[in-house]
Amino acid sequence: MAEELELDLVEISPNASPPVCKIINYQKFLYQQKRKQKELKAKTAKIVVKEIRFGPYTDDHDYNFKLKHAQKFLQDGAKVKAYVFFKGRSIVYNEDGEALLQRFASDLTDLGKVEQTPKLEGKRMIMLINPVPKKIK
Q1: How many helices (H) does the chain have, and how many strands (E)?
Q2: Which of 70, 88, 95, 107 is the most buried (most CB within 10 A)?
Q3: Beta carbons of 132 and 113 less than 8 angstroms apart
Q4: Which pLDDT tens digit goes with each residue over 119-136?
Q5: Dihedral over alpha carbons 10, 12, 14, 16 (to 10 degrees)
Q6: Domains annotated on the chain, with CATH
Q7: pTM of this structure
């Protein structure tokens, strides 16, 4: 029948009992499959991670400046990766870095939720903050 119509016989589900086949134009079928995949890919949310770097002894003005940037990033829907970078012997005072990150998280509680608490990895103490989903009015 497929040859008479000059179309292709395509096996849709081979595991079914009996197997399911369709008589269709195979090139058109492939094109539609590719288009569906492209649409699904376009609809997926792209996650953006913005980084903010602190020193263990970041001053209040610099802290507030970076806090405003983090607030803007979270409002735009991006994740924020805040980290304290320790140089040389300053790693001895990692409690100060942790306190700074905890303060940062507490200042952003209305816009973001902590995904990963401060964790020391090498010379960096890293913390991740997710944006809070926006409420629809």
Answers
A1: 4, 6
A2: 70
A3: yes
A4: 888 889 999 999 887 765
A5: -140
A6: 2-42 (3.10.20.80), 49-131 (3.30.110.10)
A7: 0.63
